[in-house]
Amino acid sequence: MTLLVLILIPLAGALVVGLSPERQAKWIALAWTSLALGAAIFAAFMFDWANPGVIQFSPKNHASGDLTPLLPLVPSLGISISLGADSVSMFLILLTTLLGPLCVLGSFTAITERVKTFYVWLLILQAAMTGVFAARDLILFYVCFEFTLAPMFVLISLYGSTNRRYAAIKFFLYTFTGSMIALAGLVYVAWVYSTIHNGAWSFDIADMQHAALTMSRTEQTWVLFALLAGFAVKVPLFPVHTWLPLAHTEAPTAGSVLLAGVLLKLGTYGIFRFVLPFVPLAVAEYASLIAIISIIGILYAGFICWVQTDVKKLVAYSSVSHLGFCVLGLVALNMVGGAGSVMYMINHGLSTGALFFCIGMMYERYHTRSMNEVGGLARRMPVWSFFMVFFTMASVGLPGLNGFVGEFMALLGTFQSGARTIGAGGTHGPLGPWFAAVAATGMIVAAMYLLYMVGRVVFGPLKEPDHHHAHETLPADLNAREITVLAPLAVLCVVLGVYPSPMLRALEAPVATTIAAAREASSRMAPVPMDSGHAEVALIHDGEASR
Amino acid sequence: MISVMQTIPATLASHAPAAAGAAHAPTAPGDSSAIWLILIPLLPLVSSILCGIYRAWGVTSKLPGYTTVLALAVSFIVTLTGYLSFGGAGVQIVHGFQWLNISWGEAHGQSLTANFSLYIDSLTWLWMLFVTGLATLIALYSTEYMSEDQKNGGYARYFSFFSLFVFAMSCLVMGDNLLLLYLGWEGVGLCSYLLIGYYYTKPAAVAAAKKAFIVNRIGDLGLALGMMLAFVEFGSLEFSEIFARVAEIQATVAAGGHVSWQIEAIPLLLMVGAFGKSAQLPLYVWLPDAMEGPTPVSALIHAATMVTAGVYLIARFLPLFALNPTSLAIVAWVGGLTALLAATIGMSQFDIKRVMAYSTVSQLGYMFLGLGVLTATGAAYHVFTHAFFKATLFLSCGAVMHGFAGQLDLRKLSGLRKLKGWGIVTLAMLVGCLCLAGFPFTSGFFSKDMILAEAFVTQGPGYQALGILALITAGMTAYYSFRVFFRVFCGPVEFHPSDDHHGDSEEEHEAHEDAEGHHGFHPHAPGWAINLVLMVLIVGSLAAAIPYFVDKENHGWVGGLVHDSTAGHLVLPTVAHGAEDAAHGAEAVAHGEGFWSDPHKWMYYVSGTIGFIGIGLAWLIHMTRRTEAATAPIADGLKNAMRPVSTWCERKWYVDEFYDIIFRYPLKILSHLFYLLDQLLVDGLVNFAGAVPRMLGRSLRPSQNGLLQSYAVGMGGGVAVILFIVWILL
Amino acid sequence: MIDTALFAQAAFPELMGGITLYHYLFVSAAMFGLGVIGFLARRNLIIMFLCTELMFQGAGIALIAFSRYWMNATGQVFVIFVLTIAAAEAALALGLVVYLFRRRHTLDAQAWAELSG
Amino acid sequence: MIEKLAQLHPEIALFAATCIVMVLGLAKSSFWRGMSVWVTGLGLVAALVLSFFSPQTDGMLPNSLPYLKAMIAAIGLMILPLMGGTVDRWYERTVGRGASFDPLRVTRGEFYAFYLLSLMGVMLCVTADDLIWLFLALELTSLPTYIMVAMSTPRLRSQEAGVKYFFLGALSAATFLYGFAMLYGATGTTQLQDIAIHFRTEGMGLIGTLGLVMALIGVSFKIAAAPMHFYTPDVYQGAASPVSAFLAFAPKAAGFVVMIQLLSTVGWGWGEHGIALPEALRITLWVIAAITMTFGNVLALLQSNAKRMLAYSSIAHSGYMLVGLLVGPGQGPIAGNGLGAAMFYLLCYGVMNLGAFAVLACLEKRDEHGELVEIETVEDLRGLHAARPGLAWAMTLCALSLLGMPPLLGFWGKLGLFTSGISAGEIGLVVIMGLNSAVAAFYYLRLVRAVMLDTRDEDMDRPALTDMFGRRVAAGLSAVGVLVVVIWAGQLQAASDHATEVNPRIRQFNERVVEAEETPVIESIARND
Fold first, then answer.
1. CB of B201 within 8 Å of any CB in chain C?
2. Helices (H), A308-401
3. Neighbours of B (≥3 Cβ pairs closer than 8 A)?
């Protein structure tokens, strides 16, 4: 029930903001998003961390003890509003509800006209995102997954900068097409369920997971590519990433933060929650292909960042590169890789979100994002420079800060997956040390482009755009409001960097259950011979299971 | 999110941290872990945070300086007492808190645990003593040196980064597992980035800082991969577990077993990390540019502590390196060649800080040579002595720079010896140069001698040739160190202040200078803090020779420390090379009597004479018939004589340009290509896919031309076609 | 009592026996085809409407033929309704054509091509 | 005979209302003339109520009467407020100002009569179980619409639309009549039941197949499917928006119901899973569905005129519904039922499409001749949120629902088609449908952006709101429907599944035939009279 409350609070907030006068809109929005954050924290308290793998907060029918849906929506198709969260969903919901108030606070001075519409759609977006992470029913997941498009489309179209219309349309169409194909894949799995249970349809994730295992390898391959079509666009993986830099440069600050902080995680969460459990055989077989794509993404996007002049586009491409690590960890099919990639989702949300806040604050003062026009701001804005360098170091993956934990574990997971023949630390898996070696060079590229940015924007001789005049309301350096936006993120970066073990403990159970099927499938395949160099997978026997 | 952190530990306390201090560590486990040893890394961290807060409050007094000096001094005292009370064969495992642990099974390799805990054995004591000691001295030195920046807030920022550096260095040295070592490793990389880029308004400093961080990152990549391979191979990152496994492997090797190539790969990868951090041949380019930072930074980081991290890493994992003799050979040869190359470049530089930088690279080359030829004691002792005399040299250069408004070119300074108030600086410079040159009975002489001797003793691929090369380099070192001394401190008194003063406080300084005009400029002699530190360092450099005589049987006090630590027990796989299979490291049995047969004996005399020759040459070339600072007739004559070689040396063998051509420019072009590809091909494909429906639409549009009959034709035609198809399909 | 089936058969003496169902179908198909071609070829609205009537009657003939073939009256009942509908359409068509003529003073189908694209 | 009459109660109610409306239309006092709208409404309400009590028939879709007729009456009721003020609004104004009343000039009565007659035609299609009845019902549906289009606006383009619609309608009527004739020729009866049995026993034969295909194509003119779609854009643009809204629903409903009945004579018992149409028919329908979808979406992309864009989108939506027809009742008890999904989608389409046309109908602007004309182009819609936020939100909700944006009604309709499509193994067609709705997203988003996000600089003349309050009610109804009906989506889906169960007797017959057991021919002939 609490999860339903978590979704309804932002919606109610949107309604109230919609009806309130334009002047108070931002304060009411702040109140409601903080209320949502409080509710999320309260839910975290109620969450039984002793067994994080179990789906909690969803009503159980007393007899059979399995989960009953909250409210049947389309009984004939077995669609119902059933919510539930394990620790992974819990953490992602906390991330969403944390970024909510910060976004509202961050855009007090940024948004001046049509303020009410901005906050209405921001709250609707937050509700949709919470819905995605809390959904236990596949169609409810899909409904919220799709519905995040509309608010984002409005935010970019109304409040973006120069060619925002093109960016908004491209963002919407790109993701919409991908998710349409993903819907076909998901419905196929539901249909497989109905053939087993003679016609009774169900879209509940647990049921479909059992049904999916009976699919033959060819079916699983088709479903894998269908689901990937939808989720890869959202992540974004290498070939389908071109919408992200455009959307980021055109989105308002709050839009960018939520887009980078949470919306990209829908893709990786989708892969984590649906691709790994539903199509284990296909994942085990094509894991090396997905790994190669994400590694290309890491290096390709990394090098592109190095030649960017627009700061926001640089950070956008860096998100493409960073999330390559996240997906790499997922397809490593072992505990360290899986937990690493989930940690990465949360850490990337915090550090890149904060980076976008900093860039937004600079943009508010200098109204330019190009590194040619503005530079060496440390002289003018020391506090801002501290935060900028701090979050750059977090996203470069400096040990002691949060970026490192996710990145290192993803790389270690990739290294040890498939290295069972080497030593005790290795595990069965499709990837191998060569993948990790190439991916690790991404750390160097990350250092190159992020320090290039910091070197141009923060350090170096002071350079300000000629038409620059002091901003009427904002002081040269950060004011109290802006610091209260960045401070919690900074503290979290340090806390998650220095003391992540309780979180890792909580992630063990859900990651284990999710990758169990895929890991077992990949271990049945011939172990990847270490010295063969390339990860060529020889299939012992076909996973053909007749339906 | 924060509250979640509090709730989770409450319910998760049940997961006890992995058993620390595993029973089968090579040496007997220390008694109960002394929790107060945690203070050593903690105090610098606290002072770093405090200085950060001072900066936020805009403190302009010397308070940050004094807080840092106090914190580091207490930390040094704790180290000293810790050493005195525990210093022995034992290994202390002091457990801090759980940093990173996740487990996916009960078996040996199925859990990744990395805690904030300390692994303290004698090697750690050695390192921590001179790290905290020198850090305190240099911090005191910088309180005065950095005084000009108090007003613009740079002062607090400097000391915050300074103490953060010491924290990172102590994590590196005292870390209980490879991950904490990696944290320290990247932490010192970060601090060197921040400190080199301290004068961030100067583009050269920013570029140098970026270069340092990225080159270090390349080294860190090797370390990271080595760490991962170690985890996969040994099932854990903790030193106690790793050394236990290594002990088992040593047992099999001793019994003639064969070492798998994965284990042999680990030292090769760790070596790359060491070369990156300690500025060895392929990755040394960042150290000379690091001189852009303030001089105390160069003294502490780029001479005494950070650059020795690489040496510490190899010393710590020497048993692992010993399993793969080729890795040791590579270390030796890389060390030797770096020493030679750096010495040749050092001879032709005019900026005295650059000379000192290249001499550091060269001396580090010696240390790696020492490790390569299995004399961990020699290497460690050279690290110890080098830390002192190099710090002295740098700080005296700093005093000169401080006094002459940033002037560092030896062609613009001469005869400082005779100026009032510069006595201590001259003495410090003299002692430093003597130790560096390896003048007999100085600390440098003994430590370098042990390394040179070992080069001739240990059997290894071409080690004799390497020894001779090292001797030639020793000669060059003597030459260039005294070249600087004679040109700057001796000869006719003459000085020209440089125009660009370091740091961003140019405004006040210009006013100060033009008022005085060229000749009216009188250098301001160093204050009490600088002189005090220099005096202590002079005593320290000279005293560094004493440990050689203490505890004679295992090569001095330092040898004793090294022997008790993990670096002490070496087992060489017999298969690799040479008939002589005795574990060489410890005993160094002199296999023949006679004077010439025992390198240790004749090395004293040979290296001593080479030192003299070097100094004599320097006197001859740079002192005789030199009337003014700018030109030294013989030196200039010699330089023109070997025109191509000298210019190559001066241009640092064009290594930087070579790297640019091989790496930077191609990568730049590649990334521009990628960006173009991204916009045209990848985006183009997407836009094309978007345009297909539009094109299809445009082609179908004429079908709707508004004419009634054309619609009828369309309909009739459609019906006919469909009927025809159905008719065929039937 | 005369058996109606026989009577019908008798009405077509052997001489005319040669005309079978398929002749009628051919005629109706021909009429239908001509109707379509006429609709496409001629430009005058009234002629076009007559062509649709032609197609309706074509269908009518087919119905009559089948009714005869299947020996039941359903076909013919159907034709009666077809005729009524054809009449209704005729009324509507002529009303429309007159209305158009008053607006555009031409009966050419090409005149009505404003809406397109 | 009596129980047969019981099935026609709703039609009778409508017919009664028609007669009253005809008379009222000519009444001298403008009050009574005004009442004709309310009587129409009353008739529709009566029909709606009576349709719930309609019994089971023994036609092809035995229990389809309550659901389908209620749907037709309900959507008819939603369109009715939109219809107000379409015809002789000016004449009423002149009479209001004292001009002498001339009964010949007043057309409002006939207009509503035609409206009711057309709806009655659709209902008759639903109850039809005989070819002749089908033919008459179809003609009854389309003839009134020809006239409504021609008289909808005094402008020249309505006459042009009327001409095109009438002539091409006549052409298609001739086609499906010929098809019916051949069907009668092949089977000897016009009862759908007997045709089905005949096809079962003697198989379809050449004439039977060609007849069925010709009938299907002829009827597909009503739903504007591929070869017969040419008239749609010109007619929707020419006619007044309310009439276009009506055209988008009533003939389409009639067309789909007739096609379902025709297809069920053949039955879906073929194919290797035993749930598909005969191969030839399946491929034809597959091709028609794919082409219709693609034509509709692709041509709509280029449109700057909103009405033409909505016309093309109605073609596309017919394509989507054809997928449901192709799938047939499916073998799953509920979820795999394509027909149910198609009929539920028809209901959703009726609700959401109405809103879009209603918003267009609400706004007027002066054209070059200075007279008040309905707005048409997307350009006119720009910046609507500033002037009329209510209408802007209505258009946004309807456009997003037409696009298939999840929480709204359109998504649940499309989801039904997705699940049934995939359960019948038509994955190729489902993916085409997915891609098509992505292409459709482009032009619906253009509508949303024009209405919600663009700003209008003041100098351009802002379209004024018409004084017809009814049109805003219709827009509001549709917007609310799109949001609120989602709650009953489950029940409605189940009802439409139940409604589209193909006649069990035929179904068992299909199964029995599959076991190739012979039924005595005599028994079927005996039942004939």
1. no
2. 311-331, 335-366, 382-396
3. A, C, D
